[in-house]
Amino acid sequence: MDLQSEKLSVLQQIINSDDESLIRDIKSLIIARDIDWFDELNDSQKNDIFEGISQLDRGESFSHEEAKKRFSI
Fold this sequence. Notes:
By secondary structure, the chain is mainly alpha-helical. It has 2 domains: 35 residues, no CATH class; 34 residues. 70% of the residues lie in helices and 0% in strands. It has 4 helices and no strands. It starts with a helix and ends with a helix.
């Protein structure tokens, strides 16, 4: 079945449904997919990410294996 047929089939099921929780779930799913996870971070978290990117740009990084050695518990 092609994408257009799938969309029409799903839409028809939604239209024919009287299940309010299903409609709410679908609406929540659509809204959640539109939210950018980065926008949900606080300023401190965003600054940490930007600092990490800056460090990578300056070549200040090490491999996963090296990190495991440095931070082994």
